[in-house]
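Target protein
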Amino acid sequence: MSAAAISVPGGLGLRRAVARNRGALIAAAVFAVLLGVVDGISAGPLTYFDVSFLSSGGATSALASIGQTIVILSGGFDLSAGAVVSLVNVVLASGMDPMAPGASIFLWTLAGIGIGMAVGAFNGFFIAVLRMQPIVVTLSTMFILQGVTLLVMDKPGGFVAPDLGAFYLGDAIPGWLPMPLVVVGAVLLAWLWLKRTRFGTALYAIGSDPDSAAAVGVNVTLTRFLVYVIAGGCYGLAGVFISAQTGSGDPLIGNPLLLSMFAAVGLGGTRLGGGQGGPVGTAFGAYILIMVVNILLVLNVSAYYSTIAEATILILAVLAGSVSGDSVLAQQLRAARARLAAWRAGMLPSQLDRTDRRLKPAGAGARPQVAARGEATFRQRHAETLRYALPAYVCLLAVVVITQLWLGRAVLNPGYWNSLLVLSSFLAVLALGQGTVILTGGLDLSVPWTIGISGIILAGMVNGSDAALSYALPLVLLMACGIGLLNGIGIVCLGISPIVMTLATNGLLQGFALLYSQGTPAGFSSPMLRWVMTGRMLGITPVIPFMIVFVAFAVLLLGRTGFGRRVYAIGNSVRAAQLSGVAVGRTLILVYVLSALCSALVGIMLTGFSGQASLGMGDDYLLPSIAVVVVGGALITGGRGHYLGMLGGVLLLTALQMLLAGTMLPYAIRAILYGLVVLGAVMALRERRPQ
C-alpha cells in the first residue's frame, strides 16, 4: 500500500479527533490566554508558588466537576454533588484524629470516596432501577444529605489532621510539580482508561440516544447506576481535598460548588444533554473559573461579583457549545426572518381579510354536538384529579389527628388552624408558580434568590414607611417580571435547559443581592405589611382572606382559562401543542414570569412576617416548592396535576412541619424528612410505563 493511500485516513482521523475534542482544545486555549493575563497583571512574573496556589485553588472544583461531567454525559443531572462534598468534609473533621499518623491519610481518603460512592449508589438505584427523574431524585438527596450533615456537625468546627493538608497541598516533586495537579491528573488518566472500556462506549451511547443504545444490547440500567456511583466517588474525593485545604469542617462548604460545576462543564465543551464532551475539558474549565476569580481580586473587584461571573460564564459557555445550524437560536432566527418576509408580503394571518375562507376550518359553520355535562357524574369528570390529589388530603387528616393525640389543642383549636393557614400561605403562592412550571415539564431553580432579592429590595425601599409601599411593591413586582422574562427568553429563544438557565439566574440574583446590600441587608417592613402577615382582624390573620382569593384565582387560571389549557398541552407534548396552534414560546415565557411573580410575592410576605429581610431567606423554599407540587399529585415531567392537589400538598407538609416543631426535632430531621417525602411521593405517583 502506498504512502498516499495511508495518509488520507490518517488526516481524516486527526480531523475527527480534533472535532471530537474541540471543546477541550478551546478550553485549553482559553486557559493559556488567561494564564498570560494573570502573568501580565501580577506585580511580577508567575512563580512556582503562584502555580501551586492556582492548582490547589481549582482542584476541588475540578474533581467535583469531573464527576458532574460523567453524569451529564449520560444525559442526567446531579444536584446533590455539593451536599456530598459537605458531608465528607464534616465526617473527616469530626472523625479524624489530628494527632493520627500519616498512614491514616489513605484510609480517610478511601472513607471519603466510599461515602460519595454510597450516595451515588442511592441516586443510581432510584434513577436507573426505578427509572425516576434525575433532577427530583438528586434534589431530594441534596436535602437529605444536608440534614445528615447537620446531624454530624451543626456548625463550623472540628479538626482535620495536618498530615492530610501536607500531603494533598504539598509537592509531588519539590519545586516542580504540585500534588493537586497530580491528583487531578490521576483522575483524568483513570477516565481516559475508562473511556476506552465497554462502559465508556455504553456511557456515550446512552447519552446520545438511550433507546438506540438499548436496542443494540447496551445494559442501560447498569450503566446509569455505575455512572452515579463513579460520579459520587469523584465528589467524595473533592470532599477529602477541600478538607485538606480548610483543616476543619463546615456543613455548608459544598453549597457554592454547584454553580461552578455546571459552568466548568459548559466551558469544557460537554453538551448539557449528554453524549458529547469529556472531563478533560471540564478540568480546564474549572481552572479557568478560578483564574477569572483571581483576576477580579487582583483588579480589586468585589468578591460579590464572583457568582455573577460564574453564572454569566455558564450561560455563555452553554450558548457557545450549542452554536450550530440546528440550534434553537438558529431556528428562532430563521423563523423570525420567515415571519418578517410574510409580513412584508402581507401574508400573516392577522393581515388577511377575515372573510377569507382560507382562515375558516372545514365545518366551521356547523354547530358541534355537545354532550350534557349532567350525563357524567362529578366523580367521572374529575376521576384523575381525585385519584392523585385526594391522598394529600387523607394524609393531612392523619397528621392533624396525630397532632391532636400527641400534642393536643389541634382539631378544635382556632389558633392551630389560623397558624396552619398563615404558615401555608408562602408555599401556597409558590405552588402556583413552581407548579405551573412543572406542568410544562420544567423546573425553576431561581426561586430562592428571587425571593431573597425581592425581600431585600422591598425592605430597603420601604424602611418602615407605609407610604413607600405604594411605589415599592409595583417596582419589586416589575423586577420579578424582568427575572421571569430573562428565564423565559433564555429557555425559549436561546434553547438553554430550564435547569441550567434558572440555576444561572439564581447565581446572578445572589450576586446582585450581595452587591445591593453589601452583605448586610438594611431596612425593615412597614407596619401595614407587618399587620397583614401577623395582625388580627375578626380573630384571624388578614393574610388568610387574601389567600382564599388567591386560591380561587389559581384554580380558575389553570382550570378555566386558555392559558391553563396551553400549559397542560405543552406538558403533555410540546410537538403536539405546536401542531395544534399553541403559541408554545409565548406561553413558556409567561409561565416563568408567573413563577418569578409568585416568588417575589413570597419575598414580600416573608419580609412582612419576619419584619425584615435577610440573605438566604429563600433557600429553605426550593425543595418544599417542588415537594408540595409532587405530593399534590402533579407529574414531575409535566402534563398532569391540579392546583387543589398542590394546595393539599401545601397543607400536608405545613401541618407535618408544625407537628415536628412541636416535638422539638431539629431542622436537620425536617430536611431529611422533606427529601424522603418527595422521593416517596414521586415513586408512588409516577406513571407506570412499560419497561
Remarks:
- The longest strand covers residues 171-173.
- Confidence is low (pLDDT under 50) at residues 1-8, 361-374.
